[in-house]
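A reminder from the course coordinator: this example appears on the midterm review sheet, so study it carefully.

Given structure:
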């Protein structure tokens, strides 16, 4: 034990970059002074010190945008608190577009900016040239000017954060690499270093590049990998006499800004390269990787095209520094489901300086509250499973994540690397029938089927895609004939044991005391009444339930159940891999199923929201009478070994009924026409059943208490200030994809959570959360006057609390 080395703390934060410094600062500001910040070398010596330090507020969701808005305010005001400058300079940012897709993308961003109260203006190429006089503008379509963005000095920022943290009791210990952890009863209890062991209650891992290897010492997954990241610094240019806006030429993979009178030219190049930590020196600190001018040359040429003055600029240095990237390009935040008390805040995907002010606050609040204080699902560590931690897959994926850093948000973008991780039993059959696959939780799932072999342009676009006719045909099959959806990837959690009912009565909002043979639609809520999960539950026996939930939610939902266990005697098993689900939906679903089964499928014998064990051909299946697309339907649950044979049999018998494969894209369109909600989009930890119009699935008045019941009772008494509303746009050519602002009488009142083109109603259909002002939402909907802003253009829309298709649900119960 090194003399004077600390021996205990409530929280140990590992990593002295901006994320670790911010987390320690916010813990201390919240009153948790018993904090130690450990750094393997010196503060900021890993990635933070060489960050380009851009702070651009706008992100794809409200909470992520608010996070960076908070970062901006924090960085502006830290000097007042500490006397230490952060180097904050408000320069604004200018995003360029050289094609229509990019222009649509940045105009969508401008719409969101206005919704969130951020100043943003769509400008002409000529105006862009006035804002950035050195740029070439003859190939521009347009631009967006955001005057509130800026930059910081990363070393000064960390110095200010740690100065304030120390003033509030945090101990900062440098030259203390982590060598291991102590663990007792599934919880971290200490951090081991060469200088000694620190006993603690909680660990916050913010170790940047080294987070994957440090987490492995505790048996925890941290799916991230380092890549080379380049930017060029030039000597001063006489044309640059002051600060210029941060320039985004994202079609060319570039960001540019002034730097000490010269230029900084950075890139997220298409030919990005991963780097293994084993190739770095053990004492790597304030170090860089070798320059590689051949690698950077295409980006340099693109920079010279945009800024001709760059051709005569002298190079100061070509900086090549390692940064960490995650499989989906979003950072990792929260308590690991693999080890209690072990939190992560890492994998910042080259946005650490912008994100860490707010992300450090979120992580500190999560540590102190024991749960997230806002909806953080886009960055929640529980969106990944342990298999995502595979280094070979991460090494394949990380360079692509870097290379697509500036990809537009046009729908149907898919990563190409680290694919084919998980196949359902029907994968080969589906591929042979023209399936185009999308990846979710590692599963390859059919998005749509190109069943005629005709070449189709699959380039993501904001316009109508070439494959739309196939999606339309799949929707038509479900509405007019019968379609087969493969739902095998849906997460399935079996909860069994003598206290299964008691546990689920407490966790679920609906009444779980029904008899075997029933299917229950329910949510699992938090204490605020918000949705932690939205699921369907089968009661198999008095002591045996099956929870079916979204594909992406398997880790999260299992973690939610286990962390809320009290003294109940239950077993919780993830049985997803062992059960295939073939869903038949459409007015001819009963006819097809009757052709291969002798079971009584009548409404009397087999009512809606019930299940029965039936024989299908030569195979047995557990059939559930329900459908997520709003049509007569059955979901057939069976061992995966049966799935191919049953699939083949159904298609052999299904020809006369018009049976057609259908994918997730058609399902999403169909469920929106029915007004069905989706967790992670329409339903979130901040949305309650009453706001969602799902009060029928919450046992608010029953004597059996459940988590969130009190919040729902209070909300019912106080009245709703916001509600989910279904929108059907008037203009057939108005194509929303989700995320667009909602206006009422010209005032922003909310944001779409889901949207797609519904071919049955021949219009874009959407769901969005509307916030009441002086007028309550019911009266707003009754009065009309709603618009949706798509890429800075407003479109009139109908609004209703009912579905545009079959609002009474007659077809579902047919």
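Designed residues:
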């Amino acid at each position: 034990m090194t003399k004077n080395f600390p021996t205990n703390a409530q929280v140990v934060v590992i990593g002295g970059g901006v994320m670790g410094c911010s987390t320690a600062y916010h813990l201390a500001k919240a009153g948790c002074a018993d904090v130690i910040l450990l750094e393997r070398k010196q503060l900021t010596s890993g990635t933070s010190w060489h960050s380009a330090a851009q702070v651009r507020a706008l992100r794809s969701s409200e909470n992520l945008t608010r996070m960076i808005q908070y970062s901006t305010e924090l960085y502006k005001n830290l000097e007042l608190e500490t006397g230490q400058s952060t180097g904050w300079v408000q320069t604004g940012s200018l995003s360029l577009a050289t094609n229509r897709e990019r222009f649509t993308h940045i105009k969508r961003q401008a719409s969101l900016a206005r919704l969130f109260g951020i100043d943003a203006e769509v400008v002409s190429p000529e105006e862009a040239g006035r804002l950035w006089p050195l740029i070439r503008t003859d190939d521009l379509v347009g631009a967006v000017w955001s005057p509130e963005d800026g930059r910081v000095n990363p070393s000064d920022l960390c110095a200010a954060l740690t100065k304030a943290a120390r003033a509030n009791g945090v101990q900062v210990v440098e030259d203390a690499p982590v060598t291991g952890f102590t663990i007792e009863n599934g919880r971290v209890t200490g951090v081991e270093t060469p200088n000694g062991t620190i006993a603690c209650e909680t660990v916050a891992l913010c170790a940047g590049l080294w987070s994957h290897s440090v987490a492995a010492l505790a048996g925890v997954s941290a799916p991230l990998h380092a890549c080379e990241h380049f930017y060029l610094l030039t000597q001063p240019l006489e044309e640059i006499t002051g600060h210029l806006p941060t320039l985004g030429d994202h079609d060319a993979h570039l960001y540019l800004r002034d730097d000490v009178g010269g230029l900084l030219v950075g890139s997220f190049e298409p030919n990005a390269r991963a780097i293994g930590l084993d190739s770095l020196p053990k004492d790597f600190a304030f170090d860089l990787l070798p320059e590689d001018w051949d690698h950077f040359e295409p980006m340099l040429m693109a920079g010279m095209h945009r800024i001709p003055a760059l051709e005569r600029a002298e190079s100061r240095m070509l900086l090549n520094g390692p940064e960490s990237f995650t499989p989906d390009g979003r950072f990792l935040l929260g308590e690991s489901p693999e080890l209690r008390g072990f939190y992560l805040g890492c994998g910042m995907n080259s946005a650490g300086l912008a994100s860490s002010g707010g992300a450090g606050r979120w992580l500190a609040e999560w540590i102190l509250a024991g749960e997230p204080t806002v909806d953080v699902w886009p960055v929640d560590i529980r969106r990944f499973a342990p298999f995502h931690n595979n280094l070979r897959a991460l090494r394949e994926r990380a360079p692509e994540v870097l290379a697509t850093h500036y990809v537009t948000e046009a729908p149907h973008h898919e990563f190409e690397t680290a694919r084919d991780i998980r196949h359902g039993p029907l994968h080969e059959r589906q591929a042979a029938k023209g399936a185009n696959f999308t990846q979710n939780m590692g599963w390859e799932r059919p998005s749509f089927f190109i069943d005629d072999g005709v070449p189709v342009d699959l380039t993501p676009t904001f316009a109508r895609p070439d494959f739309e006719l196939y999606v339309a045909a799949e929707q038509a099959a479900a509405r007019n004939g019968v379609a087969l959806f493969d739902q095998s990837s849906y997460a399935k959690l079996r909860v069994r044991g003598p206290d299964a009912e008691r546990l689920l009565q407490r966790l679920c909002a609906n009444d779980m005391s029904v008899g075997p043979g029933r299917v229950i639609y329910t949510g699992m809520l938090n204490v605020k009444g918000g949705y932690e999960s939205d699921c369907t539950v089968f009661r198999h026996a008095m002591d045996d339930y099956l929870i079916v939930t979204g594909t992406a939610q398997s880790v999260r939902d299992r973690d939610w159940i286990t962390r809320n266990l009290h003294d109940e005697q239950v077993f919780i098993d993830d049985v997803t891999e062992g059960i295939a689900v073939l869903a038949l939906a459409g007015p001819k679903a009963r006819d097809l199923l009757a052709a291969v089964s002798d079971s009584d499928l009548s409404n009397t014998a087999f009512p809606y929201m019930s299940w029965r064990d039936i024989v299908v051909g030569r195979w047995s299946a557990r059939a559930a009478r329900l459908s997520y697309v709003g049509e007569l339907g059955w979901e057939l649950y069976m061992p995966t070994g049966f799935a191919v044979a049953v699939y083949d049999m159904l298609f052999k018998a299904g020809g006369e009924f018009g049976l057609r494969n259908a994918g997730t894209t058609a399902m999403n369109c169909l469920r929106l026409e029915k007004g069905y909600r989706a967790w992670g989009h329409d339903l979130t930890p901040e949305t309650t059943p009453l706001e969602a119009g799902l009060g029928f699935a919450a046992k608010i008045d029953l004597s059996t208490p459940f988590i969130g019941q009190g919040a729902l009772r209070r909300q019912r008494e106080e009245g709703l200030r916001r509600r989910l509303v279904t929108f059907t746009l008037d203009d057939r050519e108005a194509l929303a994809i989700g995320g667009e602002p909602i206006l009422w009488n010209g005032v922003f009142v909310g944001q779409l959570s889901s949207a797609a083109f519904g071919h049955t109603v021949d219009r874009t259909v959407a769901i969005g959360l509307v916030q009441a002002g002086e007028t309550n939402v019911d009266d707003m909907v009754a009065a009309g006057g709603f618009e949706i802003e798509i890429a800075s253009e407003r479109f009139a829309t109908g609004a209703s609390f009912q579905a545009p298709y079959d609002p009474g649900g007659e077809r579902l119960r047919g």
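The domain at 8-85+152-224+328-383 is CATH 3.50.50.60 (FAD/NAD(P)-binding domain). The radius of gyration is 27 Å.
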